[in-house]
Amino acid sequence: NAGVTQTPKFQVLKTGQSMTLQCAQDMNHEYMSWYRQDPGMGLRLIHYSVGAGITDQGEVPNGYNVSRSTTEDFPLRLLSAAPSQTSVYFCASSARPRTSGRALITGELFFGEGSRLTVL
Amino acid sequence: SQKIEQNSEALNIQEGKTATLTCNYTNYSPAYLQWYRQDPGRGPVFLLLIRENEKEKRKERLKVTFDTTLKQSLFHITASQPADSATYLCALTKIYGNNRLAFGKGNQVVVIP
Predict the structure, then answer these.
(1) Cβ–Cβ gap A114/B104 under 8 Å
(2) pLDDT value at position A41?
(3) Which of B33, B15, B12 is nearest to B24 (CA)?
(4) CB–CB contact A45 B102 (8 Å)
(5) E strands of chain A, at which residues?
(6) pLDDT of A102 higher than 80
């Protein structure tokens, strides 16, 4: 069981270049998400998906695209990289959110090891 | 605006003592709250989840309390060990609407042998 696998671990881009961060999970989780982590800002949600074919925006979606064609994969695309996108990116997955009382509870998130991106 | 606040200053604590971290939130009414551990250069790892109707949750040397009146969660590490040195993140979500987790900035703990 590999869990959540992110590639690449490190990447340097020039402004305007495009690239895709890959994320794959082998736990049959329906819920997947992308976060970015910046010093002093904490983890911020970029995009998330509650199942194949379904994606939605998080807190900071601008400049990023996602798709979810399979349960296992959730790639994050940077269409035209900017220096402001220099960050560490984490992919996370969890089992289907379940209802508990009045709440829709996201179960524990399983994170990948991160992809460190530098945009020059 | 909604805020999740954790102490930005590192907590330095002697081995064997109890480390206590605070997570305060405003303009949220979370149904539950989660705590994660993050080591340098690694992804966060889930530790505990506590629901709004639970006052306290324990797991081995970890204890979490959740006071929805004070809008605060306390995270305790008893009999702390150098291996407990890490950054600890709290995370919560709204009751209604989406199920997206929002994270605090984290609080670093350094256990001194």
Answers:
(1) no
(2) 85
(3) B33
(4) yes
(5) 4-7, 10-13, 19-25, 31-38, 42-51, 54-57, 64-66, 76-78, 87-94, 98-100, 103-105, 110-111, 115-119
(6) no
CA A92, B12, B22: angle at the middle one, nearest 5?
Answer: 55
Token pair in block for residue A22: 């890959």
Is A56 touching B (CB cutoff 8 A)? yes
Q: Distance of CA B83 to CAs A60, B16, B80, B107, Å?
A: 34, 12, 8, 16
- Could you tell me if B74 lies within 8 Å of chain A, comparing CB atoms? no
Residue for token pair 């961060």:
A21
Per-residue pLDDT tens over the stretch B78-104: 999 999 999 999 998 765 445 578 899
Structure tokens at A103: 């709440």
Closest residue by Cα to residue A97 from A109, A108, A106: A106
Give pLDDT, residue B39: 97
CB B57, CB B34: distance < 8 Å? no
- A7: tokens are 């590639």
Reported as a single tens digit per residue, the pLDDT across A16-54 is 999 999 999 999 999 999 999 998 888 999 999 989 999
Pairing of strands B107-112, B11-14: parallel
